[in-house]
Automatic annotation (TrEMBL):
Isopropylmalate dehydrogenase-like domain residues: 4-341
Superkingdom of the source species: Bacteria
Pathway assigned in UniProt: Amino-acid biosynthesis; L-leucine biosynthesis; L-leucine from 3-methyl-2-oxobutanoate: step 3/4
SUPFAM superfamilies: Isocitrate/Isopropylmalate dehydrogenase-like
Annotated substrate binding sites: 94, 104, 132, 217
Species, as recorded: Maricaulis maris (strain MCS10)
Binding-site residues for NAD(+), renumbered to this chain: 275-287
Residues that hold Mg(2+) according to the record: 217, 241, 245
Family: Belongs to the isocitrate and isopropylmalate dehydrogenases family. LeuB type 1 subfamily.
Protein localization: Cytoplasm
Protein name: 3-isopropylmalate dehydrogenase
Pfam families documented for this protein: Iso_dh
Any Gene Ontology CC annotation: cytosol
Length: 353
């Protein structure tokens, strides 16, 4: 079997973590006996520099013709005032691929409990999956700006809410059977529609799932008060973006979380949840585990569950051995963490023989 995987390294630490992701993909492919054909395309700021736009037609075509896409991260101060922004390329890619459901798991391995800024007893046992709507809402509404006023329009249709809610309910069924829908229905009309649609779907199609609703401000508070009480969270684009960065502090670093962006069809888009981290870019300091977790999610989407399992085992072994990058108090560089993980993959393969 040969898979076509497009790599979009992007900007800042994007290329550093993408190099690790590629090495991990190559190693598990060799261990599991499948082949990967890689295509690498400039994306985001790197594409603006080369082609004048963050997402070219050619890059989009390459992405659409692949089985899966891995993205590092985009953006940085160099392009913050540019007419074409790297982030606009990312939004356009997500929209063009139709990847409306963004799955962002945050689990606390016991070895990480002391790494969170929260008390270890509080974060122990946390295993939450945030299902973020990814191709609608305020990030995609019309924007207007005059000298002294600005507006961003937030719109959701029933269909947009239904399709992401269905994925969240199905994920809850595969996990602990609990879904928390997060909105701001005490203020926003879009949230009132969101709540109605999720409630109707729950009663009609998922009576076995325990459904509750929370306002986003309270959800942000409960995430710190009792993180282990959450199973699956479903929420709109912007709330999910913010809550997932918050959730990354449960295991202790934003560098740990990966994400899968899925739609009706392949390819899916797989990326760590963090950005391009300009403050540490070019220093080989980034934590690559979120990128590696995204690789495991990518392999799952291809049906390569054994390969994904190998990766997760190797990550867990590294947590247990305290083999971390600086953000978690470890001494490994980004590239050293990648090499260590590959060594762990090899060692575990030999041990299993
Ligand atoms: N998916 C994407 O491509 C995203 C892009 N961005 C863009 O990234 C740029 C920087 O945004 P920020 O708000 O600073 O968010 P950020 O996520 O890039 O960085 C926030 C903080 O977390 C740290 N950090 C991030 N990833 C890390 C990793 N793997 N290992 C260790 N530390 C890590 C950074 O050093 C920084 O202190 C902006 O241009 C933003 O628009 C932001 C989020 C997502
Ligand atoms: C361009 C932004 C929406 C990227 C971001 O913050 C994210 O996807 O987490
Ligand atoms: Mg974000």
């Amino acid at each position: 079997m040969t898979y076509r995987i497009t790599l979009l390294p992007g900007d800042g630490i994007g290329p550093e973590i993408t190099a690790v992701a590629r090495a991990v993909l190559e190693h598990v492919a060799a261990l599991e006996g499948f082949r990967i054909e890689f295509a690498t395309c400039a994306f985001g700021g790197a594409s603006i520099d080369e082609f004048g736009e963050p997402l070219t037609e050619a890059t989009l075509k390459t992405c659409q013709a692949s089985d899966a896409i891995f993205l590092g991260a985009v953006g940085g101060p160099k392009w913050d005032r540019a007419d074409a922004r790297p982030e606009a390329g990312l939004l356009a890619l997500r929209k063009a691929l139709g990847v409306y459901a963004n799955l962002r798991p945050a689990a606390v391995h016991p070895a990480l409990a002391g790494k969170s800024p929260l008390r270890p007893d509080l974060v122990a046992g946390t295993d939450v999956l945030i299902v973020r709507e990814l191709t609608g809402g305020i990030y995609f509404g019309t924007r207007e700006r005059s000298a002294d006023s600005a507006s961003d329009k937030c719109t959701y249709s029933r269909g947009e809410i239904e399709r992401v809610a269905r994925i969240a309910f199905e994920q809850a069924r595969l996990r602990r059977g609990k879904l928390t829908s997060v909105d701001k229905a005490n203020v926003l009309e879009t949230s009132r529609l969101w709540r109605d649609v999720v409630t109707e779907m729950g009663a009609r199609d998922f009576p076995d799932i325990e459904l509750d609703h929370m306002y986003v401000d309270a959800a942000a508070m409960h995430m710190l008060r009792a993180p282990a009480s959450f199973d699956v969270i479903v929420t709109e684009n912007m709330f999910g973006d913010i809550l997932s960065d918050e959730a990354s502090m449960l295991p202790g670093s934003i560098g740990l979380l990966g994400s899968a962006s899925l739609g009706e069809n392949k390819p899916g888009l797989f990326e760590p949840i963090h950005g391009s981290a300009p403050d540490i870019a070019g220093q080989d300091k980034a934590n690559p585990f979120g990128a590696i977790e995204a690789v495991a999610q990518l392999l799952e989407s291809l049906g390569e569950t054994a390969a994904a399992g190998r990766i997760r085992d190797a990550i867990n072994t590294m947590h247990e051995a305290g083999e971390w990058t600086g953000d978690l108090g470890g001494s490994l560089s980004c590239s050293q963490a990648g090499v260590k993980l590959v060594e762990r993959l090899e060692a575990e393969a030999v041990a299993a023989e």
